[in-house]
Specification:
mainly beta, Type 1 dockerin domain, 3 domains, 24 strands, 37% strand
């Protein structure tokens, strides 16, 4: 009998005592607009208390290590939260993720299928609890613990592709047509050993993230605060997998990408909400390479958009040299139907773009789906300025809905203009000389050295800047 089932069979007060309840301060919820909590049920992840490891399996030459994290949820809303076990679909779906910050890049390094919740206990992690009399509801103010070993139970993990994270709606009976779980790593939070190996990861910082997806919470307008994160460190290799140790407090109601600006002073993030859908969060960090180029690093996290992302574009003014374009996604596993094919990049029409397959071609093309983060980067020979980047959407929206959304970001600024290029056409040539001579002896256009007179000095400057 596992802890959850044991505790569920006990009176509420006794169960809390047996759990040795850790405490956390109650945190008010926020609406999608950041104001006071909306009325209705409002689930959050109150704590990520523990981690389980399950060894590793070599897959295609990669050593894949398997983990699970515990999640204690809280209902910080004003109504009881439905918690009916499958085949009823009124329960939370709980995907788990892992991230790494290394050399200026904040990236996803692992994902699991999602735990389908069953039976709510009525505990007090987030404050006083108005307990429900049954496990079919999480009472107002109450918390419910899922240990890491429970969240790692393979039979309780459901495929992500069945989930609409924007509405929180999914089939009550999960994993229809899906293969059984592979030994050790199947369906669990899988991380390639190379992402963890201390010998290859000097200076890396790591974070776990868990999210509760729930239709009642979404309907109430309370779905933007459903992810929380917590740091971890990597220890010794034991029994086939690195030991991972949780560090610091769980940061409630924030996805892991929120850690990026806290650990990288060059980084900033911004939300991009898709009307009638969900939220993307896009981060950018720009650093001077010290050789006349700047590295532009982007991370785009899909919190709960069902339409998903199909492209990412950053404006690039003419004359900017873009090199070293890169892309990194996170591949699904354990039989999820999604393509792993990397997006392709291009520089054209004043944009650097990354694009994946079209929904019209295949509904299982590689898209930036909920609870995943993709990375994009390039070098440019100009320093940053504030720009609007754009996320192109994968699934078509209903009538009147946009096909892409903008998000505040940074991109290369325009190259400085040559003061001798008087007509601004990019070259110093006869047209510029004509302008200078026609204004000779006067001032204004043609006064290249800005001394108030158009004279021989300006002619010399123009001729010395003459385009080959
Ligand atoms: Ca919520
Ligand atoms: Ca891929
Ligand atoms: Ca010119
Ligand atoms: Ca002059």
């Amino acid at each position: 009998m596992n802890t959850k089932i044991l505790l569920a069979s006990l009176p509420v007060g006794l169960a809390s005592i047996l759990l040795g309840q850790f405490t956390a301060s109650a945190v008010p919820g926020t609406t999608d607009e950041g104001g006071a909590a909306a009325a209705g049920a409002d689930v959050i992840v109150g704590a990520i208390p523990n981690v389980s490891k399950y060894g590793s399996v070599v897959v295609g030459g990669r050593t894949v290590m398997a983990y699970a994290i515990g999640t204690t949820s809280c209902n910080i809303g004003t109504a009881q939260l439905e918690w009916f076990a499958s085949p009823d679909n009124r329960h939370p779906f709980i995907p788990m993720n892992a991230f790494r910050y290394r050399n200026g890049r904040f990236e996803q390094i692992g994902l699991s299928w999602g735990k389908h919740g069953f039976t709510a206990l009525q505990q007090t992690l987030c404050g006083s609890c108005q307990a429900s009399s049954t496990g079919n509801y999480l009472g107002i103010g109450c918390s419910d613990p899922y240990s890491s070993s429970l969240n790692g139970g393979q039979s309780g993990l459901g495929a992500r592709h069945e989930i609409n994270a924007a509405t929180g709606v999914f089939p009550g009976s999960y994993n229809s047509g899906m293969p059984g779980a592979a030994a050790t790593i199947g369906r669990r939070l899988q991380i390639d050993s190379a992402f963890l190996d201390p010998a290859q990861n000097s200076g890396s910082q790591y974070f776990f993230e868990a999210q509760y997806i729930h239709q009642q919470d979404a309907t109430a307008g309370n779905k933007m605060n459903n992810a929380s994160y917590r740091g971890f460190t990597v220890g010794a290799l034991m029994s086939g997998a690195y030991s991972l140790t949780l560090t610091g407090a769980t940061i409630q109601q924030k996805p892991a990408i929120e850690a990026w600006p806290l650990i990288d002073t060059n980084a900033s993030i911004a939300n991009a909400d898709v009307p009638n859908d969900g939220r993307f969060i896009a981060g950018v960090s720009v650093r001077n390479n010290g050789n006349g180029t700047w590295r532009y690093e982007y991370a785009v996290h899909n919190l709960n958009s069902d339409r998903a992302g199909r492209s990412f574009t950053v404006p690039v003014p003419s004359g900017v040299s873009v090199t070293n374009i890169g892309f990194k996604d996170i591949d699904y596993h354990s039989g999820e139907p999604f393509s792993p094919t990397d997006w392709t990049s291009s520089v054209a029409d004043g944009l650097v773009s990354w694009t994946g397959g079209a929904y019209a071609t295949s509904a299982t093309s590689n898209a930036l789906r909920f609870a995943t983060m993709y990375n994009f980067w390039f070098d440019a020979d100009q320093p940053p300025q504030v720009v609007q980047a754009a996320i192109g959407l994968f699934k078509p929206g209903s009538a009147g809905m946009p096909s892409s959304i903008n998000v505040a970001s940074k991109g290369p600024s325009a190259p400085p203009t040559n003061p001798a290029d008087l007509d601004g056409d990019g070259v110093v040539a006869a047209e510029d000389l004509t302008i200078l001579l026609s204004n000779w002896g006067g001032s204004g256009e043609g006064d290249i050295n800005s001394d108030g007179t158009i004279d021989a000095e300006d002619l010399t400057a123009l001729l010395s800047a003459w385009s080959a």
